Structure formats: C-alpha cells, structure tokens
Amino acid sequence: MQPYDRPDREYTSGVHITYDGGDAPWWSRSVFRGNASCTTASHECRMGRLELGQDIYTPLVSPDNLLAVDGSRPNAGWLYLAQSARRLRDSHSDEVTVTLGVTGPPSLARTTQTLAHHLAPEFNRPTDWSHQIQFQPGVIVRYERRERLVLSGVRAFGVDIVPHAGASVGNVSTAAELGLQTRMGWNLAHPWLPLAGGAEVAIVAGVTGRAVARDLFLDGRVSGGDGTFNSGHEPFVGTGELGVELRYRWISLAYRAVSETRAYSVGPKWHPWASMVGGVTFDR
To answer: Which of the following CATH numbers is that of domain 3-280: 3.40.50.1110, 2.60.40.1930, 2.40.128.140, 3.30.420.150?
Structure first.
C-alpha cells in the first residue's frame, strides 16, 4: 500500500531494540545451571536477552474529523523494558521473560505518534489522544517453549517445523498460546542457536492461537468520558504470518506480513500489519 493509503489504527506502531548475548540473568542461573554461556559454536548453552520497546494502539477513526468511531478501541501506549533468560539446545529452547513498563502519558505514545506524523504531514495525521488507557505500572512474566523438527537437511536446502507454546501472567497481559512455524530455504540457519554461518535465504510461514484472559489495552480504564471501554476483549485470537529472512555473514534482515483475527467485539474482522527486523551478529 502507498503510505497515504495505509490505515493508522489498531496496532499502529511497534519499535523494539533487542540485544541477545552474554550469560543468562542472575535470577535464572540456579534453574539453568550446568549450561555455559553461548558462543557462535555452542549447541547447548544459556543466554540473556534485553529489550527496550514501545507499542502504540489507536482506534478506528472517522476520516472527516479524526475522532474515534463509537465502540472502537481506546488509544493506548506501552513503554517497557524486558529481560529474558534463555536455555538453548539443538532440539528445543526454553525462555523466561520478565517485563516492566508503563501505560498512559508516561509511555510517550502520543508524543511519538505526533512526531512521526509531523515528519510527513501529507500522510495520516494523529488521532485525538484526549482519551487513552490511563497510567498504570505494568509487569508481565512469560514462559515459552519451542521445539525444532528437521524435515529436510539435504545439501544446502533445509526445511524444519518449529512448534511453540507459551503463557504470560501479569496485570498487562494474561494469556496462553500455541502455534506452529514452518521454515524452508537455502543454507537454513538454526532458528535460535547463534551458530556461525554464511548466506541464507528462507521463507517462513506460521499460525498461532491465543486464549486471552486479560488485555490491559482493551480492559484498562480510559482517561476522559466515563472511564470505561465497553467492548472488552475477545477470548480467542488467531494470528497468521508469512515472511522472508535474508542473512549474509553477520548481517540479517527479516520481513513479515501478519494478519490477526478480531481482538474485540466491534473491531475489524482481520487486522493486517507488517514488520521488519534487522540484526547484526558479533562472533565470539
């Protein structure tokens, strides 16, 4: 879609900066003891991850006055810092993540969106932020397990299936999920071990189902008005993705086209969005 045709609604922006490396955090080492810190030659190891991110959600808006359509989701921002402990093996991985963050004005969502649209005022303009999810400190504890099933590793061509299951508990998100990802490509890299390699081209497709008990961005209190969002969240949400991954030595780039089912009762039946992830790997 051309930039001026792209909708600015629902999950409108996500910017995440992630560092994978070093030993697992201190709070996890008693559980992951017996595993050494990862290197680019490791087949069984432990690793830490640190992520700083901001997610922004906006309602459906009227093209005439840029005000939220009745019944659509409220504006919401989430500014967070997450630390993960990862135990990585050839066949499977375990990851525990603790996330701390804030919603409301301290999330800087309104500031970020306003700044972004001022850079290109001829495109979509910011929505009305007089109503948004109120300030609340948030915490999420999440566990995820992934398995790897290799279907083909003949010469340079590879195919694998990666089923995954996870659960999160907290005042921001409480949910469980189950999914499956399929990868195929030339010189297919391992999906989570930081093994050194050459060039790679891979096609990725996957589906995930989530059972949602709490979603603060739909269940939280809203500033202004009567302070409530009456639509609530859907108990089950499905996601499908299709993408491509490129890697040459220490530089990687991935693109995903994602579509999610309805997140709340009067939301759009399908919500498509896309992401790009770039990475740099340092040998050790």
So the answer is: 2.40.128.140
